[in-house]
Fold each of these.
Amino acid sequence: RFINLAGFGNLAGDMAFWDQNKKKIIPRFMPGSAQAIAESVNAACTTMSGWSPDSRSFFVATTSPRMNVDNGARLFTYAGNEITNSQPWNNENYHPDKLRAVQFIPAKFGTYPDRPQSPPPKGAIESSAAEEKPAAVSSKPAPKGRYVPPAARRAGTSNSLADRLRAEREAKSASSVGKVTAKPSVVGMSNAAKTRTPIGMAPPAAKDPNAKSKNALRKEKQRAAKAAAEAAAAEEERQKQAAAAAAPVDPEKRAKKIRKMLKQIQELKQKDPNTLNDDQKKKIESEQSLNDELSKLGL
């Protein structure tokens, strides 16, 4: 019936006692009076806890070796009031670290009846009933009318669409007072006549509609510079290849290189043709030309 929601272990040890049937926290009162207690119940440094077999008491204890200081046990009612006047033990006998375990003597299920909460003091019942009594409702119906938000409930204000449009027009007309507007141009007047040039200054040159922007000119220069650089690099590479072709070749070195290539071709021919790439296949196809070149060298 009763539940204790508590935060023990690494938490502060606060406890809240609930009635499971009513789904409410059990109220606490001062002993012998109707004054309610608002403070929360706290049991810091708790290592063991449990309900009594009749569900009317709850104990918390600080035991060793989990806590080696302030060993002892405390007893609470099902509402959270601590019982201090009828304990059959003395916690000072267990200081600082002599208490090992605490437990209620167990009882068979059904030994104790399922008792509800004890009725609260008479004064607490009257005060709680007065708090729960609803306020008197006037029989006079409230006057009907359109809803006005709190921001527009001041005297002389309204929040309708017509009033808002009227206020917006008035604000625009007030802001236009004293504002200088440009004189409209004469129909048929040329752009040159509209633009007044100081005496002695040449009129501004007309803009070419086909003229390119600065950004377009800059990109065009970048493309031209890139094309020139690529052409120079290609010419340099062509000259290097021509110089290499014109240089005399040592027959022995060339023959040695051809034999090495032929050896690689023989190794490739021993592999699975499906595993060869395009470069390796081209190398195998050049075997005949390499043999002809080697025979011409006569080495």
Amino acid sequence: VNRSQNWSLPDLPDKGTSAVPAVLSPQQQMMKSITQGLFFAILAAIAALAIASPEVKVVVYKGPKKCSNKGKNDEKPTRVEPNYSVAFHFTVTVDESSVGSRESIGRKIESSHDLGIAPSFPVGQGKVISGLDQGLIGLCKGASAYIIIPPHLAYGRTGMPQQGVGSDATLRYDIEVLDIQAPLPNDFVNIDANKDWKISRSEAQRYFEEEGKVIDLDALWDAEDKNSDGYISWEEFTGPKGSEEPPKKQRQEKKKKQEPQKQQAQQQQHKQTVGSLFQSMDTDQDGKISKAELARMFEAVGQKMTLEFWAESDPDGDGYITFEEFVGSNEGSASDEL
């Protein structure tokens, strides 16, 4: 191998000279390919860093910046810590540093002021987007702050189009911390080793042995196991059990809240279905169904329309079925005969 080989790329021709393509040696061709590949890889890395800043930025612009929970035990906390519940007002917009469409910059996505209620939840438990979970920790009660959240800690590449959040959007939360509550004691979660939301005798025995406590399990079960199924459920447990309810109960509450919306959606779907059926029968599209059109529909399903059915479907006897009449007949005898 010739170690004095020149591995640099050929110089570009000077102005005024003919640009005759240089003949590259195999080594030079390989080096050129590697150099170009590295160049584009570096560009891609820089672009990725520009899109996804690794950190959440927090700027306290009003209120206390320093606080501590190392006071007396009976004092209310003044600093947000993991698992502490925080109540706060917020307004979230698309930040000016966002790389998406410039038209979305500054767009308001959501505000608790519009809702008329300040949300409250335990911090650091995944109840909200990761960036907000991180940004709230360390803030003081009474503080107002901007929390700037990069895309990968917000809604990422997919965004949230239904709320006006585009792909790779950087979010800006303007928040005011109203109240902070320390986590409630939760003996239940410590005893429930397999996290099935019920305590078995073996789990209770293991827990109290590790705590160095002697307890009468029979007496405990007589007092706590209300339905005598051999387990102490979260509902039955009378000791400290925090504020988080079992997922099943959460789902039931969510289902209860969603029921009116579900009924409304079903009614809307039913209306659309009836409307589509009416239009399919109204072959001449004059907004009403004639006797001949209805008869053809019956023939299409292998049945014969009776005069009694027609009389019931056309109560005003004008020879046509309007949509209002159709809806009435569709709810009753029409569905029975079909």
Amino acid sequence: MANLCATWRPVPPCARVTHIHARTTSMTVKAASRANYDDKDRLASASTYKIPTPNEMPLRIPLTHGQGPSYDFFEGRNLALELVRVTESAALRCSQWYGRGDKIAADQAAVDGMRAVLRHIKMKGTIVIGEGEKDEAPMLYNGERVGDGSSPEVDVAVDPVDGTTMTANGGPGAVSVIAVAEKGAMFNPGPVVYMEKLVVPEEVHASHVHLDDPISQTIRTVAVAKKKAVEDVVVCILQRPRHEKIINEVRAAGARVKLIVDGDVAASLAVSKHGSGVDMVVGTGGSPEGVITACALRALGAHMQARLAPRDEEERKAAIAFHGSADRVDRVLHTADLCGGKELYFAATGVTDGEFLRGVRFHMGGASTHSMVVRNLSGTVRYMDTHHKWAKPSITNPRFQQQADILMSNEGEENDK
């Protein structure tokens, strides 16, 4: 007891408060009790460290002996937990076309499954990133109203299956994703189909990299931040002819290249997960996928930079007309520029096996899915294993959905009569 008393030190009052930052999985106590009292480098002076006032830390959660944290500040509804049923439904329908060589049928099945559940979600949503313009996509088109029409009013970005080719060919990394943000919070790429992208892990400070930096410099920055040799850095790149130069530059820098044929959303999300085997993503990919990815990375902690990449002069002129100036087209967009606001929700379900999500598994009388659910405000990241039974009525059950669609179509025909 004497020894304990001799080494005991009083805990500063600020040590009894935890602050939620980017991720609740890494809650940190901003207090001197966590530092060595004799270490001047770790003790911040009054000029560099200021104890926040209650108004400056609205997300503080007091901890008392014998009690858990109070979450009264947060809204009780986590919309992402409802959205995951949307991606589960899309993945279940789409995966039935796994390895059958028909990517169009796989995509249509995912669209049907997603739309069947999306109409029941309690929200007033507008699709800003969808399957295309209304005349190009009969369902889940840009501007389509989704949800049951009740509050909240939100913007919605969907990709029923990111990786149609991989699904059709039985390849890895296909996922179904949906992102929801506050009204007006999502960046609208307009007529530009592609954008340059750079995704680096959370360990890298966002100001230490830039989209225009030489790739060798960015690789060294990532290697230092992750405390690994340059030779061990894995850079994921879409396998396209336009990327031949950057692939050669990455290999010349001494890093490793992981080529994927499709599905840069899954690859970008893998950067945020420790042990995924992907350290960074670089290259030109779809603009819609970039916006969806940014919504998830806001909570996951990885950093993203992007810039619109018009394919020709005609598309560039259309982009300038849409965004207002050439400077706005050519500017570098950061994660918060692509998806702003505080309340962001993201859900993804694996269609085929990938770095961070398993694909759909079919078994006798049902199937199982593996999903990820993210909420930006609280920083929670959940991984969900769900078992679906065909014998039970469920909103994600493909057989139940088909029966419901038949009943609705029959009712419509009777009303027409």
